[in-house]
Design a protein that fits this description.
530 residues, alpha/beta, OB fold (Dihydrolipoamide Acetyltransferase, E2P), inorganic pyrophosphatase (n-terminal core), Diaminopimelate Epimerase, Chain A, domain 1, five-stranded mixed beta barrel, five-stranded parallel beta sheet, globular
């Protein structure tokens, strides 16, 4: 048996509740605990500049990003400006033609007196120079890790700036944009209910894998609750598609966020922005259908690229670095995640076009990927991100030097930092529907509050059934060794499982709530076989 399944405690329901309560003892969780946005460095200065622009009738433009956080940030800003009835040019760069963020090419298409970014811009040195030369005031709002040299912008709002007193550092781009709009509301003296944006914030916080503790947790709880009754067309459609009365963080993370991301990954994020900004359910439904079709295509491209990437891996490396000519830039981040899961090492996947390699990296355990990439800064054209995920680009001829260099630094790291933290809480004394209300108390689950995973050791396998139209899902009917007679079904979606030779299995699983035709039942989801 693997080391990760040893020394696992046996838990009563009471012991489980105590363990889960410990996750939150050190965190404030009231919406009133959200620190005032004026604590964000430069935020007041920037809000006053936008207020002046509005009072003088100047042209204002916002530049977002093509992931869920960036699209949602842009949607929040658009919605705020529509509430105050002021025209705004909203632009999201195209991954393939514009590259990332507020680039020179994007600025050439914008006619504005003030440009502000959401979820990007902290490394936009050239864009700031272009704006300065044109007499355009550039305001940057971002949450990614700043480099040593910052853009020469009118204002930079980013809680991760070293001299920024805002106490919450792990917030997403949409939260920064929302806080900024809150200050602008105050400067203008207008009546806009800022709580209306909580469902959008919940979407962004979950999709951008922010810690679901403290204030983030309180916003997500409030946002999901509002999503359940919202009349905003996009959320009406999300409810209809999920066919659920209570939307969970996992519904957003596994079903909705990938669809919204698919637009920017494969075509253009404007499709997703039009979904979130739709003013009729018909429009929202049409856009969601487009997103769903793109997501199906994304899965196919991702599976093909992952197979190609897998064949390029040097298994002895501490950090996997693979590159391929013409790989789709939009799926390299997901492929990197697949490699991390398979090899249990950080992975960087690069797509080569016209002699330039661009891509994404994902980390594992406590390895700070951003810092590792920074050691090779001299080989790179651009890079940015944070501890667990980063984006980068370099000339094709630098790939091997980069791979060798980053591995030389990674080799010196403590091997323990590469070990993913075991998140198996224990082995349950009793599996029963009484677990559902207990687990529901500690939702939403996500980053830093993972859905509890349990161990089941040496269970007798009664039957294995395949189901679904293409028989691609499995059900294990198991009898726990500690239980006489009673059997439980464990479901594994998108996995074809076979009867083990000795009819005995050890596995990890989660306990989920299944809603179908108005009925609620307990669903045991098989995660990993040992």
């Amino acid at each position: 048996m693997s080391q990760s399944t040893t020394n696992i405690p046996v838990l009563s329901h009471e012991a489980l509740e105590t363990l889960l309560e410990r996750r939150f003892t050190a965190h404030n969780e009231k919406l009133s605990d959200i620190p005032h946005p004026s604590l964000l460095k430069d935020a007041l200065k920037a809000a006053q500049r936008l207020a002046r622009a509005i009072q003088k009738g100047e042209k204002i433009a916002v530049v977002g990003d093509y992931d869920v956080d960036g699209v949602t940030s842009t949607a929040i800003v658009k919605r705020f400006f529509s509430r105050i009835n002021y025209p705004l040019t909203a632009t999201i760069p195209n991954r393939f033609t514009d590259g990332y963020g507020v680039s020179r090419g994007v600025l050439e298409r914008i006619d504005a007196d003030v440009v502000f970014t959401v979820d990007n811009g902290i490394n936009a040195i050239e864009a700031a120079q272009v704006c300065k030369a044109r007499g355009v005031d550039l305001i940057i709002t971002d949450h990614h890790t700043p480099s040593a040299v910052l853009p020469d912008a009118y204002a930079i709002i980013n809680p991760k700036q070293l001299d920024c007193p805002y106490p919450l550092k792990e917030i997403c781009g949409a939260q920064v944009a929302w806080l900024f709009m809150g200050l602008l509301k105050h400067e203008l003296g207008v009546a806009v209910d800022m709580k209306q944006f909580f469902p959008f914030l919940a979407l962004a916080i979950i999709a951008d894998v922010m810690p679901l503790t403290g204030v983030n947790r309180s916003i997500v709880k409030a946002g999901l609750a509002m999503m359940n009754t919202s009349t905003v067309p996009a959320f009406v459609i999300i409810r209809d598609v999920l066919n659920k009365t209570n939307i969970s963080s996992e519904d957003i993370g596994f079903q909705i966020a990938p669809r919204i991301n698919a637009a920017g990954r494969l075509e253009d994020a404007s499709i997703a922005l039009e979904f979130l900004s739709a003013d009729t359910t018909q429009k929202a439904f049409h856009q969601f259908e487009l997103l769903s079709q793109l997501n199906i295509l994304r899965k196919e491209i991702e599976a093909h690229t992952a197979a190609l990437a897998m064949a390029c891996v040097s298994v002895d490396d501490h950090v996997i670095v693979v590159a391929g000519e013409g790989w789709n830039e939009g799926v390299v981040g997901i492929v990197a995640s697949r490699l991390v899961n398979h090899f249990q090492k950080p992975a960087i996947v690069l797509s080569i076009h016209d002699g330039i390699a661009k891509g994404s990296g994902r980390s594992i355990g406590e390895v700070d990927l951003y810092s590792l990439i920074k050691t090779q800064e001299s080989l790179l054209l651009k890079f940015g991100g944070h501890t667990m995920a980063a984006g980068l680009s370099m000339p094709l001829e630098n790939i091997e030097s980069f791979r060798a260099g980053i591995n030389a630094f990674a080799k010196a790291l403590d091997p323990a930092s590469f070990v993913p933290k075991s998140d198996i809480l224990g082995e349950l004394e009793h599996i029963s529907p009484a677990l559902l209300p207990l687990l529901e108390k500690f939702e939403p689950y996500g980053e830093q509050n993972p859905r509890p995973r349990f161990l089941l050791k040496n269970a007798h396998c009664v039957a294995v059934k395949l189901f679904g139209s293409d028989k691609s899902h499995s059900k294990f009917e198991l009898r726990p060794s500690s239980v006489r007679g009673e059997t439980f079904e464990f479901i594994a979606f998108r996995r074809i499982l076979e009867m083990p030779e000795n009819r005995t299995v050890t596995l990890t699983y989660t306990v989920n709530k299944n809603e179908f035709n108005g009925k609620t039942s307990m669903q045991l989801m098989l995660e990993r076989l040992y």
